[in-house]
Structures are given as structure tokens and as C-alpha cells.
Amino acid sequence: MAEKPKEEPKPAKGNICCNGVPARYVVTALGFIAMNIIYGLKVNYSICLIAMVNHSAVLGSDNDTEKECKLEQRNVDNGPQTQNGPYNWSEPLQGTLLSCYYWGFICSQIPGARLAESLSAKWVLFAAVLVNIAAAALTPLLAQWLFLGLIFTRFLSGLFGGAAVPAMYVLILAWAPLEERYFLSTICFLGTTVGTVWSIMISGAIAENCGWIWVFYGMAAASCLWLILWIILIQDSPNKQTFISPEERELINKSLAGEPKELPTLKAPWSKILRSKAFWAILIAHTCSNWGWYMFLLETPFYYKQIFKFPLDDNGVFSALPFLPMIGFGALIGFMMDRLMLADKLTPTTARKIATSIASLVPALCLVGLLFIGCHSYVAVIIVFLAVMCMGAMFSGFVSNQIDISPNYAVTLVALTNTVATLPAIIVPILAGFLTNHNETTDAWRIIFGTAIIMFLIEFIIYVSMGSAEVEPWN
What we know:
By secondary structure, the chain is mostly helical. The protein has helices at 23-52, 55-59, 64-69, 91-145, 147-161, 164-175, 181-209, 213-233, 246-255, 270-274, 277-308, 312-320, 323-342, 348-370, 377-390, 402-405, 410-421, 423-436, 442-466. The chain contains 19 helices and no strands.
């Protein structure tokens, strides 16, 4: 293999901001914001669609939900029965709008990883944010003039957004000293959850009080500052960075000196990977977990609207709140597993299996409760809260398992498993739209919840029986 030319460091100008802020922390902070923007602009559709659609025209006069829950649901008398927008989009069409983002997302994981590794992670991530901002800004116009254009921009948003996660991994590998890698990567990828929370929450409030178009215009405008900062302040590696002290550059290079430099160009041992039980355990667990994850993420606002008639601002708050304690719960489980492993009371494999079991069995039990609560709105909110919170344990389970079984090919494995695990994001909204089309009833939602229960149980069985945290021989 031809050896790459050695990268000569650029002259350092010292720490930026004149206050000794390390450059790697600036990369981490702007990476965190990038994940916020991409995930925020992805999930706001779930709330905005409720405000965009003329529900009276779509449902007609025969609204079974109102008849079914009228006596028990308090909110029916506290606000408008139906929030109507300008567009007569059926439930299946709404499901298509939600899922078409992931048509692009599923295509770009592996190509995005390769582009970030071979060309520039900085510019891959920049392009991902730029396209998502532009798509958000165009959404109100395309919704009015060209529906196919709306679908196309959602597809493009997913295509570029899908490359953002592997690009962020590549930047972390280049910038984070080994002793800080876990901490800095955690901060960056917490942006996905934080972006989900604030986007759903403020989307409901803005749509209810100012109109849904300002959700898209406001988020797009507020995100533009990031583009400027990213161009000026970020480079692909410390050796290309000018706004960095010589001491920090030396610290990072010294820490990463033992890291293999040529592995990104090596051909992955696909035949051995595809025969690995540990790999299949991660892939199946991730895919099944994502079925439940995307059901909660994409469909909870529609469940609250269709069954309980929550106003948009309340809907946004109730839909977003579970994701806040999920972060803390995931961190707590991770801390407990680490302490138990340090005390030699758990092996890494057992720790991964315990965390994955919590993230699958507890949500499954919560969904069983949702099958029977009928029209009791606040009981449903509490159950969803507990289910999503406990899914935070997955970050200490299968989500971090790729680097256990193959540190050398972790980025490629993450891209591969993310690609397959995106399939539920395409299927779930379409299935939910089909089941609730002119049938916005608790019976329809029982079927939706029942499929998620099955997926969580498959995740638990497969991962506990096949999962491993030992390095694979093909690494």
C-alpha cells in the first residue's frame, strides 16, 4: 500500500478566543450544535404536520375518536376539537412525508463515512447542515406550490443528514486524545437528543402561537451562524488547524501516535463480518430498537393529537419531555456499568447485555400498559415518559458495542448498522398512516404498539443470546 504523504502542521496562532479555549473543545462544541441542527430540523415535521393538515377535510364528519373518547378525555372540552391547516393530506401521505427523509438517510451512511475518511469530514458535515437549513427554508413555499418538491427536499435532507454521523465520528477520531475520546464523543452525540427535545418542544409552541411556517423559517435563520463559525474555526485535524496552541497540537498528536493511520483505506473483511454472531446481534438489536424508537419519536405527537386532542403547544411539551430524562438515565446506567466492571463484578459482555435488556424489556412492558389505558390521557403521557427514558440504557448497550468487537472497523460497522437500522424509520410512519387512515381510534394504535412490543422482545432475545463485547478475530 502506498504510504500517504506526511501532513505538515500549519503554523499555530495560539488558542482561539484569546482566553485559552482549547481548539478540540471548539470542535466539540460546534459538533454538538451541528447535531442539534440536523436532528432538530429532522423531527420538527412530526409536530408541524399536525398544524399543516386540514384534519376536518381529511377525516370528514365521521370522527370515531371523538365518539370513543369524548366522555373520558378532559382536553376535548378545554381547546379546539381539531387544529386545521391548509392542506388536505391523508394519513398515508403524511406518513410518506415523514418517511421520505429516511429514504435519503439510508443511502448515505457508508458513502458518507468513506467521503469523510478519504476527503474531508469538515466539509461533509458542513454540506449536511447547509442542505438541511436550505430545505427547511424552502418547506413553506414547496408545501404551497409543489408537493413533489417537498418530498424531494426531504429526501435530500436525509441524504446529506445521513452522512453527518460518520463524519462526526471521523472528526472525533482525529481531534480527541485517547483519554478524552469517550467524553468528547458523548458531548457531540448528545446533540442528537438535545436537538430532538428542543425542536419538538418549541415547534409546538411556535406553531400554536405564531403559525407553522415560522417553525421552518425561524430554525433555518437561527442555524446560519453555525455555517460561518464552522468555516472559520474548524479543520479536519490539529495539523491543519491554525487556531491552536503548539502545546495542544503536540498533546493530541502524542496521544494518537499509536493509532493506526492506514486502516480507513483497508478493505473490510466482509465475509468474516457477515459470519459474526456478535455483529448480527448488534445489527438486529439496533434495528428492532429503532422500530420502537421511531414509533415514539415520529408517531407520539399524532397519537396525542388523534386520541387525546392535545393543543399543539401541550403536544410538543408532552412529546419532547421523555427525551430529557433519557439522557440522564443513559448516563447513570453507563456510570453504574463502568463502576461494576472496574470492580470486576461484571464483564463487558454482561454489562452490554444488562443495559440492552433494560432498554428493551421496560419499554415493551410500558407499551403493554398503553394497550389497555384507553382514553386516560395523562396515564398515557406517564407511560410514554417511562418507556423513552429507559431506552436511554441502549447507549451503554448495543449502541457502543461496535468499538468493542472491532476498534479498527468501528466507523464502517456503525455506518452499516445505522443503514439497516434506518429501515424502521421508513416503515413505521407509512404503517401508522395506513392503520389510522379514517380510523383514528385506540384499536388502530393498539396494533401499532403491539408491533413495537414484538420488536423489543426480539431485540432482547437475540442480543442476550448472541451479543458479545470481546474483540473479534477478524479485527
